[in-house]
Amino acid sequence: xxxxxxxxxxxxxxxxxxxxxxxxxxxxxxxxxxxxxxxxxxxxxxxxxxxxxxxxxxxxxxxxxxxxxxxxxxxxxxxxxxxxxxxxxxxxxxxxxxxxxxxxxxxxxxxxxxxxxxxxxxxxxxxxxxxxxxxxxxxxxxxxxxxxxxxxxxxxxxxxxxxxxxxxxxxxxxxxxxxxxxxxxxxxxxxxxxxxxxxxxxxxxxxxxxxxxxxxxxxxxxxxxxxxxxxxxxxxxxxx
Length: 240
Prior knowledge:
- The chain is of the alpha/beta class.
- The chain contains 9 helices and 5 strands; from the N terminus they run H-H-H-H-H-H-E-E-E-H-E-H-E-H.
- It folds into 2 domains: 6-115, no CATH class; 120-234, Trna Endonuclease, Chain: A, domain 1, CATH 3.40.1350.10.
């Protein structure tokens, strides 16, 4: 797991500075485009309004409103066209900016991945967010994942499948240890389902009763440490 670097994307700080300066000039020119549509738009809309209803004040009011709307639309179109022209005129700077966007996205993904290696990240999630995070983790581990509707899950939060084997998952975002009643209930759900195994995931750990009960059954216990270890195992790949 490695932090993305500029050279992973064929970039240098000097490249970015040059392209950013050029982009600043592009945006400065863009900001000057839309006012050119304001006066013609106001005159046109005002004239049409006055022809339909000969009232100077009403025509001025509608003219300004209509002119402003036309200026926004016309300016947006003009700025879009200028983006295309600028990309053709400054292909190297345009390419650098696109690569820089990819670098920033990769850096953000890396930082989010690093957060997921902290116990504090998992301990502050809501119950539903915990389910979503585990669903994403299992997907990255190569499982097919189905998230069940919140509140109507029948004791199952996730269905995961890999190599033709299906597993039901129950997620407990607890601050304290999960008691044996929870794992007994999960085992009952497993027996009545068509799944091959079950996983009980908890941020608060498990009591000795849970550990003893699950010992000789197709139930895997995932505590916070195990969840973080799985997160480490999927790592972070820098995509350039």
